[in-house]
Amino acid sequence: FNTGMAERVSRKLQLESELHLALTEKQFVLFYQPKVDVASGEIIGAEVLLRWQHPERGLISPAEFIPVLESSGLIVDVGRWVIRESCQNLQQLVEQELWGGGMRLSVNISPRQFSGQDFVNDVKNILQYVDIPENSLDFEVTESVVIHNVEETITTMTTLTSMGISFSLDDFGTGYSSISYLKRLPVSTLKVDYSFVRDIVDDHSDRVLVETIITMGKLLNLDVVAEGVEELAQLKMLADFGCHYYQGFYFSRPVPLGDFMNLLIKA
Ligand code: C2E
Ligand code: CA
Ligand code: CA
Known about the structure:
Blueprint: H1 3-24, E1 28-37, E2 43-54, E3 58-60, H2 62-72, H3 75-95, E4 104-108, H4 111-114, H5 119-128, E5 137-142, H6 150-162, E6 165-172, H7 179-184, E7 189-192, H8 194-197, H9 204-219, E8 223-226, H10 232-240, E9 245-246, E10 255-256, H11 257-266
Parallel strand pairs: 2-4, 4-5, 5-6, 6-7, 7-8, 8-9
Antiparallel strand pairs: 1-2, 1-9, 1-10, 2-3
Helix pairs in contact: 1-2, 3-5
Bound molecules: ligand C2E and calcium ion (CA) (2 copies).
């Protein structure tokens, strides 16, 4: 134990208490990043991304605070808020006729939230009080939800699937990727991680990896979404590989709800 460690611990505790406050003081906001059809360029849905509007530090990225929410257990409350708020916003988009049939809104679910005792009931409760179309909600989970208990994961996913929620496997290829999970889990979409898409133009092995993931996804009848597309050259390559959908700065950064509505109006 040294001063460096003491400082880190105290900074983490400070952050935790600030995050508690953030929830009650309504400092969290949701941003939306469109998902786009590679072939037609049409918006086919969006991913919801959490932001923290800190009173002094401004907009804070989830990469900085999600791990603290996870380790403190606060993710359960914040995650519930994210789902509820996303559904309410989705209802608003539907009411304004901006949300087409077949479009899906994807919400990130963290492992601790997913395996929480009340997760399925929380989702049921939320869905009772909103009016959104059948099959318009998607949950993005990483392979790490599976590690602890495969059977339980499958049960939870199957229950939610029967409620019209689809699943995307996020960050595919970065973790403990076991291809055998892919066969067993009721997922409809594979997300190719940003870290692989980033260098496909210059890096031969990343290119092979991305093409392989896309091909495998298609052979397993899964939709494939490539994330982190920043340039036309990457998009062209993904189109050549037969990738269905993409998201990334090339089309749009994650934006606040109002800006997202404008993107939908223009589309
Ligand atoms: P993720 O699910 O892999 O989300 C994709 C990240 O890539 C987002 O970062 C997004 O802003 C970023 N991104 C999108 N397009 C581009 C691009 O073209 N170039 C680059 N450089 N980056 C791009 P963000 O919003 O900072 O989120 C980071 C991570 O935080 C997410 O990674 C996700 O794991 C987590 N997260 C975000 N919102 C939530 C949430 O509501 N709940 C949970 N549990 N986790 C969340
Ligand atoms: Ca995601
Ligand atoms: Ca990712």
